[in-house]
Amino acid sequence: MSENLNLIDTFAEFKEFKNIERESLMRILEDIFKQMLQRKYGADAHIDVIVNVDKGDVEFQRWLEIVEDGQITNESTQIELSKAVKIEPDFEVGEELFETIRLQNFGRRDIVAMRQSLVAKITEYEKELVYQKYDKKTGEIINGTVTQAWRKDVTFIDDDGVEFILPKTEQIPRDYYKKGDTVRAVILKVTPKTNEAPLIIASRIAPLFLERLMEEEIPEIEDGLISIRNIVRLPGERAKVAVEAYDDRIDPVGSCVGMKGVRIHGIVRELREENIDIIHYTTNANLYITRALSPAKITALEVNESNKTAIAYMKADQISLAIGKNGTNIKLANKLTGYEIDITRENALGEEDIVLQEFADEIDQWIIDTLKKIGCDTGKSVLELSREELIRRTDLEEETIDEVIRIIKEEFEK
């Protein structure tokens, strides 16, 4: 019967499943076969299912109690003596009869139903295994090969053929992938799906991805000699990492960077040339903020620990460094330290200046706030920058900048 052959062929296929242990596979197969046999012979039937996973075959055995003729109370578990002796003349009442059930005893519908149950049960079990395996791997780096590169999402598979999704929102802005490319990312989350395979989301912008890369590249972190205290990122642009060594003889910053930057360069390349600032962590707020604003040099610092704010005073040529391109440096310093840092120009001794807030009657507050974000918190700090530089940094309208300059100049000319 072709259906019988199809069932055995299907069964033989399952012994090749990589992710299912032999014992688990046997248990699933036994349950499926036993359910089918009990539907045919009754729920009380005594049935043994012998599965040979290695050969890809199966045997069914049924046990019946021999009773006097006319004394059967349960046809699923008993057989009359007159019928039993036809099989073996020496049988007596009270003994058990062993019967081998063959696939040929089943009809086409039984075989098809059994095959469908096998496919569904094994597939469901494998999905559950995938979920459990990768849910435990959340936060770990995964390497894969791109199978599809859509406009928004990228799908890739690992060595086991398991599929991952790298959404556009989890990609570094300069990421670009095509089919066949290798991709590295961190497993962000695993979501079980009822009728489909688990949805495994990967990320390349999560701070955890940078942390895992550093663990791979820097032995002292892997060995626990250096601890990563905090990571903040503007993916593809800049990152700041606070590190601490448990041994005073270890330079945590130098160890992370490596000789001639060899350790950090590989990570920078993986992150599409994202600049990484390694900062020596300290519980001293003044020192921590000073380090976080690197590469800018601070002249003086006022820290208010109660409301987590700080004012950093520095020379005019250091302000642009402290703020960074598009404000990246100051944004990351704020996130890293947990302080709202205000950059203020250091006034030359005896030089008169006017705090920008004093112009609030003539300049809208949102414009003043925009100027403060680029380090211009006094009138002279605004005038020190060219008209073109002010427009470029603030992204304000030309007419607005012209009006601000006019107002400030008139005040100093009084």
In words, what does this structure look like?
The protein has a 5-stranded antiparallel beta sheet. Strands 1, 2, 3 and 4 form a 4-stranded mixed beta sheet that branches. With 414 residues, the chain is an alpha+beta fold. Residues 1-6 have low confidence and may be disordered. The longest helix is centred in the N-terminal third of the chain and has 29 residues, at 108-136. It is elongated and about 125 Å long. Among the domains are: 2-126, N Utilization Substance Protein A, Chain:P, domain 4 (2-Layer Sandwich), CATH 3.30.1480; 137-205, Beta Barrel (OB fold (Dihydrolipoamide Acetyltransferase, E2P)); 206-281, K homology (KH) domain (GMP Synthetase, Chain A, domain 3, 2-Layer Sandwich). It starts with a helix and ends with a helix. It has helices at 2-14, 22-41, 81-87, 108-136, 207-217, 219-222, 252-257, 262-270, 285-292, 316-323, 328-337, 365-373, 379-383, 387-394, 398-413; strands at residues 46-52, 57-67, 78-80, 96-101, 141-149, 154-157, 163-166, 182-191, 199-203, 226-234, 238-245, 275-280, 300-304, 309-314, 340-345.
Strand order of the largest sheet: 7-6-5-8-9
Helix content: 25-40%
Indicate the low-confidence ranges by residue numbers: 1-6
CATH C-level label of the domain at 2-126: Alpha Beta
Mean pLDDT: 86
Number of strands: 15
The major sheet is characterized as: 5 strands, antiparallel
